[in-house]
Request: fold
Amino acid sequence: MPHLTREGVKLCYEEAGSGPSMIFVHGWTCDRWHFAPQAAHFSQRFRCISVDLRGHGESDKPEQAYAIEAFADDVAWMCGELGVSNAVLAGHSMGGAIALATAARRPDLCSALVMLDPAILFPAELQPLITQLIAGFRSPDGANVVRQFAAGQFFTATSDPGLKERLLDAMCRTPMHVAASAFEGIAAFDDEAALRSVRAPVLYVEADPQIDRVGRLRELCPGVAIGKTVASGHFHQLEVPDQVNAMIDRFVATSVRT
Reply:
């Protein structure tokens, strides 16, 4: 597996195709496989790089804080090492927040930003639940807390049972020190400031079950393009990849100079 080493930490990635660059950033307790349908589709026209974030997949998992900004610094550093600039940055869930942070901090790296049901703009009333979940992730039963939380929040009645179980099993294999700290990082991230500063075209695609954030998103990022997948839960890039790929295709064709 190709990898880069940053300050002693191995960061794995997968690359396919050639042309303008497209970077895929997976979500909380996930890995690069969660963008496999998109990498297969877009590698026909793009140089697609799918990362395993620090703490996830085949990358190293040190005991440390896992802040959104630190993840974004890793992504930006990897782009530099791989000769990437002016890329389409695509992120799912926590990866959407990381892609947003990267675009805000390093505009030279971002020709367009794609956020798939991103972990941003949570209502203030969810804070007690977030605090409770973090404590649960740190408990001896942390993996079961992850499973119960994800099973209850990320899927719908139409979700494929086999895919659901594979996703839940993989999420529970992420070390709990990573799961808890990364969740804290999501809660602490200043997403509003990042959205105000992004200058690249932005696509936001929501899924079910959804958090009502479109109004606030339009206020902070007036030019945002908004889409919604049908008959899919949070992992819509895996459940209904044709819908997601078509929206990204159209967005890139109409908004991005490649």
In short: The longest helix spans residues 241-255. Strands lie at 3-6, 9-16, 21-25, 47-51, 87-92, 110-116, 202-206, 225-228.
